[in-house]
Amino acid sequence: MLKNVLKATVCASALVVSAGAFVAPAFAEVVYNRGNDTDPTTLDHHKTSTVAEGNLMRDLYEGLVVQNAKAEVVPGVAESWEVSDDGLKYTFKLRQNAKWSNGDPVKASDFVFAYQRIQDPAVAAPYANMLYPIVNAEAINKGEKQAADLGAKAVDDHTLEITLSAPTPYFLELLTHQTGYPLHEASVKQFGDDFTKPGNMVTNGAYMLASFTPNDKISMKKNPNFHDAANVQIDVVNFIPFEDRANCLRRFEAGEVQSCSDLAYEQLDYMKEKLGDQVHTAPYLGTYYLPVKVKKEKLADPRVREAISMVIDREFIAKEIWRGGMVPGYSFVPPGIGNYPNPVFLPYKDMDMLDREDAAKKLLEEAGVAPGSLSVELRYNTSVNHKNTLTAVADMLKNIGITATLFEMEGTGYFDYLKQDGDFDIARAGWIGDYSDPQNFLFLFESQNLGFNYPRWSNAEYDALMKKAETTVDLDERAGVLRQAEEIFLKELPAIPILYYGSGALVSSKLSGWEDNVMNVHPTRFLSLAN
Amino acid sequence: MLSYVLRRLASAIPTMFIIVTLSFFMIRLAPGGPFDIERPLDPLILENLNKAYNFDKPLWQQYLLYLGNLLQGDLGPSFTRRDFSVVDLFSTGLPVSIQIGLSAIVIALILGTTLGAIAALRQNSLTDYGVVGVATLGITIPTFVIAPILSLAFGVMLGWLPAGGWGTWQHMVLPVATLALPQTAIVARLTRGATIEALRSNHVRTARAYGLPPFVVVVVHTLRAAILPVVSYLGPTAASLLTGSVVVETIFGIPGIGRYFVQGALGRDYTLVMGTVVVIALFIIVFNLIVDILYALLDPRVRYD
């Protein structure tokens, strides 16, 4: 026995020595250098808000539910849950084997502690409002109620009950956000503000914090206590901040990082040629659209708006003006969003541009608009890309005999002007969703939403469907209702969707498991790295 | 000499006080605050934040609070990096910046003076034209051009050195080269000019007339006089090199303190900006003092008594 141990030791040390001298040994830990947008403001997830911070938190923590590689909601710490018939009460059953990185079990009270803390006015959490649907959350955040009044209760160590003030069918989506993660109560209480320091920080995700050097990297090690640790392939992930995308590109090309969280779009052609399908672009949860002032007589006929929409060559704008940073858009709700299977699109999505021009001319004729008789003003806020986009649109409108002039406004005044029912013909606007649910897009055009309904479009049927969706608890049925609403919207076109926002990434061919998705989330636990 | 140094150090205190006061109020004049982000915060949440960081207090109270903490060596918390105090950030970043800056200065000093002296001794020869030409090129090409080119050439194409990052000596080579290149060029030009002048000066002519060996004439008598402009140039330059370079640190991804000034100013991280100002001011004061002391040592005509 002793002999064997000795032999093994000698072998191992010989291996280590030779490995040190030459190349990494076969059993070396797998290290993934992952480019991130910037450093986080903090690792206290209650005080975070940015996408870059979300990427870090997703690896450090696990919520009740999590997003998988495709950004679908799947069980996290909760292995199952029940929703009451009125959609107000969620009962989560926590898995028995969920553990913190120090080995403590993850208890329902850890979630209650976190959800109470994020509403504490003294914590001053910027995204506390994500959890406002929970009973009394807003009142606690305003200092009007006590933390104990929160509608989140630990029934026992493994049962968590959350009560909402109104049915919120996208509540599970909300819980995947970092504001829904638990906190290890004992270490937060023991270390106070220092609980995020390496050595103090206790997390329950697939990874745990090893070190944090500002402007250099945040290093995380695989959490051996994670319930699914057996399936976590990457041992160490280093998040490296890159403010300048070109710097990440260089280090990607040098093989020093295996992914970049964004693309240097000005070099897109070069990257595509050089790096091939390691360049990823995907639709993101946002829409770039042209609101049309529908109450103006010349634009009141939906056929006129449809004709305008038809002749806009979205592929051209996405490719030539936005260099692939935007994706051609044919619906208001970006495809791939949660709770919305079978999305709807404009019917001429796949039609040839020349055929679309002919169809548009015919529509104008039917609407009684003679060629050359209609002139519109295209209004936009100062930005080269907006200007180029609308210049291209003006050019395209010329093809069907519509004269378009451009009008530029300075940013802050512009959005106020749109909100205050300004006297525009056609303008530009963009919307990035807060959570992955179609309601978060379609609510913009409810007739009472004066803040965002720039066209001042009002459609009783649309409003009724949106109202119905609010109280429909069954997700499939609700998706159908929202789909009907969007169909009306796309027929009436009070705002013409032209682009979806895009997300871009460089992903090494050695890195597998990276699935492009509309939320642009890629948890490291689902990735693996080849040597 | 000692009393001179003490006097200078004492006069640094009011200077620092004025710098701190001016920059404290100037940064507050900039529109916006540390919590104004792209998507506006809920007013209630903003109020909570302002309370947590004393921004709800009148400005003069905040100023006194800051001064009080500064006297105790506390530069305050960082607003954009809330897991760190400003002192934390400098204690990890400054050694990195000093490491790179110091290497660049040493290289620039050795290489620059040597090249400059050689060029001066062979004035109007091919060597001279070569040195002057390369030096002019080194001065005119900005670091934000050199840095990515070096990184591309040696990191990506040749693969000899890391394209960026920090950790081993290999990571230092390209950033130090980037920083040293223009400095070497400037030092070489300064040395060349001063050497040519010194070669024509009376004391060098006298030394030659005494029949001293050429090596002694050049190294002891000429270079000692020729190094003076280089020393006065290197004082403030060293202060700025040791406190990090925004460009080099950003392009090579180096965790020094050079980026904090810009990141702090853009994020309205008042305490971080103030901390950077304090550190840079201290370095400038100290290095100007060092320059003056070196002057006394190098130039027999300068005395501080």
Explain what you see.
The complex is a heterodimer of chains A (531) and B (305). Chain A has 16 helices and 20 strands. Chain A is of the alpha+beta class and 531 residues long. Chain A has two domains: 39-208, Dipeptide-binding Protein, domain 1 (Alpha-Beta Complex), CATH 3.90.76.10; 283-502, Dipeptide-binding Protein, Domain 3 (Dipeptide-binding Protein, domain 3, Roll). In chain A, the strands form six sheets. In chain A, strands 11, 12, 13, 17 and 18 form a five-stranded antiparallel β-sheet that branches. In chain A, a hairpin with a 5-residue loop joins strand 4 and strand 5 (89-94). Chain A is globular, with a radius of gyration of 26 Å. Helices cover 75% and strands 0% of the residues of chain B. In chain B, helix 6 (143-157) packs parallel to helix 10. At the A-B interface, helix 7 of A face helix 2, helix 4, helix 6 and helix 10 of B.
In short:
The complex is a heterodimer of chains A (531) and B (305). Helix content of chain A is 31%, strand content 21%. Chain A is of the alpha+beta class and 531 residues long.
Give a count of the beta strands of chain A, DSSP E runs of length 2 or more: 20
The helix content of chain B, as a percent range, equals: over 70%
Q: What count of structural domains of chain B?
A: 2
How many distinct beta strands of chain B? Answer: 0
CATH top level of the largest domain in chain B?
Mainly Alpha
User: Which radius of gyration of chain B do the C-alpha atoms yield?
Assistant: 24 Å
| CATH level-4 homologous superfamily of the largest domain in chain B | MetI-like
Strand content of chain B: under 5%
CATH C-level class of the largest domain in chain A is Alpha Beta
